[in-house]
Amino acid sequence: MSAATPEDLRWLDAAVRLATPHLGTTADNPTSAALVVDPRDQTLVARAVTARGGRPHAEAIALEAAGFEAAGCTLYTTIEPCHHWGRTPPCVDTIIRSGIMRVVIGTSDIRHAGEGLLRLESAGVEAIVANHAPSAKLHSGYLQRLSKSRPLVTLALTVSADDRIVDVATGAAASWLDQLRARSDAILIGAATARRTNTDLTIRTPGLETRTPLRVVLAGASGVDRRLNLIGGFSGYRTAIIAESDAALDAPASVEVLRVAGKSGRPDLTAALTALAEKGIQNLLVEPGPRLAAALLEADLVDHVALLTAGEATGGAAASPDGKFTAVLDAAGLYAISAETIQRDTLTLYRRPA
Ligand SMILES: NC(=O)c1ccc[n+]([C@@H]2O[C@H](COP(=O)([O-])OP(=O)(O)OC[C@H]3O[C@@H](n4cnc5c(N)ncnc54)[C@H](OP(=O)(O)O)[C@@H]3O)[C@@H](O)[C@H]2O)c1
Prior knowledge:
Blueprint: H1 6-19, E1 33-38, E2 43-49, H2 58-66, E3 74-79, H3 91-98, E4 102-107, H4 115-122, E5 126-129, H5 133-138, H6 140-148, E6 152-159, H7 174-182, E7 186-190, H8 191-197, E8 214-218, H9 229-232, E9 239-244, E10 256-260, E11 262-263, E12 266-267, H10 269-278, E13 283-286, H11 290-298, E14 304-309, H12 325-331, E15 335-342, E16 345-351
Parallel strand pairs: 3-4, 4-5, 6-13, 6-14, 7-8, 7-13, 8-9, 9-10
Antiparallel strand pairs: 1-2, 1-3, 11-12, 14-16, 15-16
Bound molecules: NADP nicotinamide-adenine-dinucleotide phosphate (NAP).
């Protein structure tokens, strides 16, 4: 098997850039992109991203668009193509029939374990896995759901200039938070925050309004009820409640209730995340207050944190008067990987060690 060339890696970078804004739209399928490229002059013949809802897959759409021009071309795909009949025909067979000569794959899919590559090779199509880090990052939620039975968990929260989690986030945070929400398969908040803010968690940024994902409320010992906007309101978006097996709930039939094991009226957090993974959730955004953030970090269930530090006093009371939040992140072993300024605020991204 030959190695990926610098041109291959550039095309894979382009495929990842194409797919990334579509994260959160492909249900339990990977949000992959495929490019059909003519290797003689390095021109793009066709490109596609897996369709909304996860079908058809990117490879099938790109090859359909390329038609006869696919013959002799290279197919770039961010993740290993499927080789078995699921809800769609196997992409590997479509590739073989198209006349594609070479397939360059960003990252392996643990579901397929190289089977598709063998099928391609035995049909005379050269197939290589480039072990392309941006492709692995693009698909980290999908891969983690399969390998750990839980979604990739990102916490998003706002702290004051003196590093306390503020009571209610201000307007400046709304736009970056909407971007994160749109690229997630679900947003989770605790019942105390749902009660305190009565948020409906919908995306309001123009152009992204239709991207509100599944909204999930984590119910605790004090329960939740239909007076909350998220539960009894009519927003046109889906809501689910995660509750301990025996907890009493008041919710209309439009709200899905996921019952999991727990203690003292509170769901076990690992069981809660497994229940979401079973529903196909790959990337989960949690918007926690201090208690829920601490509980998830304590249970070692946090992969990324997006922390907005206000440049000035936000006006809200501190929800975490006792401790500085970045000290909590340090203690949990997370480290900062980037920081950018948004107006007067600073957005810092943290991640867990590999
Ligand atoms: N600055 C920000 O970005 C931001 C974001 C969100 C919230 N907030 C603020 O934070 C404050 C609330 O923070 P919080 O942490 O107390 O509330 P939270 O984020 O809502 O989390 C605690 C809630 O989750 C429930 N829960 C269920 N299972 C749990 C478990 N296994 N472990 C821990 N909690 C579990 C608790 O139930 P029981 O206690 O009933 O058992 C409680 O209702 C509010 O003032 C809110 O406005 C700020």
